[in-house]
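Sequence in, structure out.
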Amino acid sequence: MTTEPIELSGKTIVLTGKFSLMTRKEAAAALEARGANISSSVNGGTDILFAGEKAGSKKKKAESLGVAIHSEAALAAALKGEAAATSSASTTGAPSGSGPAVFSGEHRDIADGEIVLVQGSGAKPYQLKNIGGVYSCSCPAWRNQSVPIERRSCKHLVKVRGHEAEQARIGDPALAAPSRSGEDKDKPPVLLAHSWKPEDDPTGWWMSEKLDGVRAWWNGEVFLSRLGNRYMAPDWFTAGLPATPLDGELWMARGAFQRTISVVRRHDGSDHWKQIRFLVFDAPEHDGDFEARVEWLKRSFGGGVADYVQVVEHARCDGVAHLKTELARVEGLSGEGLMLRQPGSRYVAGRSTTLLKVKSFFDAEAKVLGYKAGAGRHKGRVGALNVVTPDGVEFAVGTGLSDKQRENPPPVGAVISYRYQELTDGGVPRFPTFLGVRHDYAWPEEPRQPV
């Protein structure tokens, strides 16, 4: 039986129990955006109670007061502006049937209330659900999207339901088709940082050194770059790593970024990898907050479980003065800077204000357009690289190039990293210094518009 759509605007609503499609905080924000008033207690003025699994005293009180009680499935349908396909006021939206089904490899739909298990790169399979016509997946890529829950998709839903079915469901022609290559080229859902601003109070945040290595995502089987390209680490290097994702950097030493790149891009599994360490700073699929994830990492890699793995050390920040003192210390050791992590924060994909980078200088990327001839001791070699930023700003960078790089410079079209002090009024970097060639940066197809 299908009921009429639930009216939300102007209603006083209480949320209780465990929700599986979204957190109660996300549900409250979505309801408020539709004109509802959210209350934390049930009383005579309560219009609706949405009850998830294991709803307790609030549900009982709502029943005694005659308050309308609906399931999470009904909530999901109401947020979509649709009628709820249920006649039971006490339904919690829990999956029906004898138990989860394991995906067989053939495209199929997911029945309302059904759970389908799909094995990912970790030890535990992901759970795919259909609750009231809202499809979800327990993977981080689905959980961490910033679009409404009914518009989310992921590669696991595409794998089960098929690309065309998912594209039709969310109405987005830009939904990427699954890779047809033998190797999964999907970009890992890495957490990215914003820059720290002096007006931001760092007191109580966790500080660690900003590493000048190569960002690497261990997916439980292999190392991947931010673009999803595989780093061919030898088996002896990865021995002892778990079958669950880890986020960190392949690192050699301070100031050795270019040498690190030259090693990790090798495909011969050579002993050069013995110079590298995997410095791990997060466990993306651990369910705990940041502190719990770090403790898990320390327990997992204590006692020499993996010879080439180290857990990054973090220290509580006492305030701006403490932050600046530590920054000066790290930069005095030729370090790149610091990272700040918000206490109690979760791992999310994409840029987040829960992770901040702190540096005296700025880093950016540019594409090589050509070369300026050298003069004096650099006569006969490259004096500077003519480059362009993603915003279309052209300038030259020569400082930081070694003699070897001047004789064999990065080719035209290569993307480089550079450091600079500030931008001129025209948007040109001041005092740019060459850092190295980037192989894990996706150059935008269209120039960005300067802001």
